[in-house]
Structure of TonB-dependent receptor:
Amino acid sequence: MKKTFILYIFIILFSAISKAFGGEIRGIIVNKDKAVSFASVIILNTKIGTQADENGKFIIKNIPLGKQTIQVSSIGYKTKQLTINILEEKTNNLSIEIEEENAQLNEVVVTGTMKETSINESPAPIQILNPTFFRKNPTPSLFESLSMVNGVRPQLNCNVCNTGDIHINGMEGPYTMVMIDGMPIVSALSSVYGLSGIPNSMVERIEVMKGPASTLYGSEAVGGLINVITKNPSKAPKFNFDFNTSSYLENNFDASSKTKIGKFDVLFSGNYFLFNKRWDINQDNFTDITLQNRTSIFNKWSMRRSQNRVFNIAARYIYEDRFGGEMQWQKPNRGGSEVYGESIFTKRIEMLGNYQLPIDNQKITLNFSFNQHQQNSVYGSTLYLATQRIAFGQLLWDKKLNKNHDALLGLTYRHTFYDDNTPVTQTTDSKNAPDLISLPGVFAQDEVTLNNKNKLLIGLRYDYNSKHGGIATPRLNWKFTPNKDNIFRLSLGNGYRVVNLFSEDHSALTGSRKVLIANELKPERSYNANLDYQRFFTFGNGYGNIQLNGFYTYFSNKIIADYDQNPELVVYDNLKGYGISKGVALNAEFSFTSSLKIFAGATLMDVYRKENDLKINQIQTPHFTGNYAISYTLSKAQLTFDLTGNLYSPMRLPVVRAYGDTRPEYSPWFGIHNIQATKRLANGLQLYGGIKNFTNFLPKDPIFSADKPFSEQFDPSYNYAPLQAIRGFIGVRWSIF
């Protein structure tokens, strides 16, 4: 009887265990209808897993019943996770499709040719960056995020108000065009503070093109361009939010949600950034980092009509209250001469869209945008009031002539209104005279497929500037693909740029220097050559790619701001000699089956001007920059560690020797390094945290004559690194698809 009872208990326990671990999955791993051999298939949070056979098929038995998350990984493919409900019966014929990772070769880009093409087929070298990459070192805006991109360097130009611009291959911010969905939204006045107002919640991807792009995009795209592609409402998560805070008490909140209204897919996105803690670690009685209270709201409507015709329209509003200055400054001191402070109120609205005209068998698209930027600023006792409006329209005809010729024709018109309270917009008798510029243009390009290994892109643009007359910019790109693992690209181009004084150099207003325009400024011209080589390869336990790029740009009529001529002045004039920007950049990416990923880049460059046989290195431009991002994932624990950082060689800085400035003319070698851990939980929830600048690097003596802020000696432009010490951060993000 006792033995029978024990046997009965054993049968019950065996039955319960069988039910708990009775699930079975049979399936196949595929990529574009082709089987993926020997892929790894595991059930997360268990020790259960297997490897697919040479035909991509797999079987997993004894799986706990209920909802389980399956993870599939293979060399050369993106890791994929999916949740299924494991039942007592077998789950047969499960087909799991995974995507090729191979350096994003199949991702769609639009920046290089102004039409959709895969990055592999683009004749112009384009770098794609997505929010997942930027999350390795989370930041509150696009400006800080771009420090992770090799050859792209966010540069702070003022240690009081923290104005900044983006340098590409060593060329200053005015040479970089920042666009949103291909529209010239962030330019001129807005480039000084507007870059920090682009939150990550509205970004689907960022496309970076280094080298001149004036043939397609006109003035300002001389050094390169950054095209921010906003989220597609039909593909965005149903709900997404991301909140993080730091030991500096920086608080950033991003949120987005999508819905369906009639025939439209609609995306609502918002960002709020608050930093109101005053820090003065170097004890110079000035805030180390500007206080900021910023709100950004973004709304996009998208509709796909018959024959895949698309209509998109989006709008954005930004408000920011920014302050930097003496620690005791308060609002009643604004504009006064007793306590020094720089207080900037910014209001900005943007609208942009595109509409494909309903013409049979033709792809004709109308692009349009409008933005208004209003700024109310005080720099000590100097008041600066400015308004800028830019209206832009573009008509594109995308026509494939035959199998070898793919043409694009465009008509553009850009109207700029700019008004401020400075002599820049006044007549000789002190009457107000807003700056008005009309810029109609026409361009054409032909993408010529010579054979399966060679492709040419030939383009020409002609603009008529209402102040400077007609300007032509040609372009030639050649892509040579000897095999699937090697790509060569050669780019030759000509660019031009006209001046906008406020965006040229913010030191014209901050500090004590005054502006002097020595002569009537002529448009700059640039001549550029760029050679790019990219190789893809696999090895025993992973895959990778390397990209080597050489660049050379020659400038005539280069517009310079001379700090050396007189310590009380910033003197603008066209360079009587010439300017040079040249160098070489190397990018490398490696991914290992051990879940280790490495991104690394380095740029070696020489940027200078030559005048009267004298070579002068460009201010705030290091000869060497490097960046890296190293990630390692513990798959079973769903835990990822990210190590990121930058390294900079010495750069020339503006010193004020006439007033006894003894600070070094060149910065030291330095680096900024960060570490982060991310824990993925169920239902799309993630917790993350880490340490920024864990080596605790801080620049020395950033402000000259900080004890005399209203004197002619005061100068806050000696900047080469952020004034933020070591700090911790934590955050949470949640996405529902």
Summary: The helical segments are 2-20, 131-134, 142-145, 190-193, 214-217, 501-504. Residues 2-20 form the longest helix (19 residues). The two ends are 58 Å apart (CA to CA).
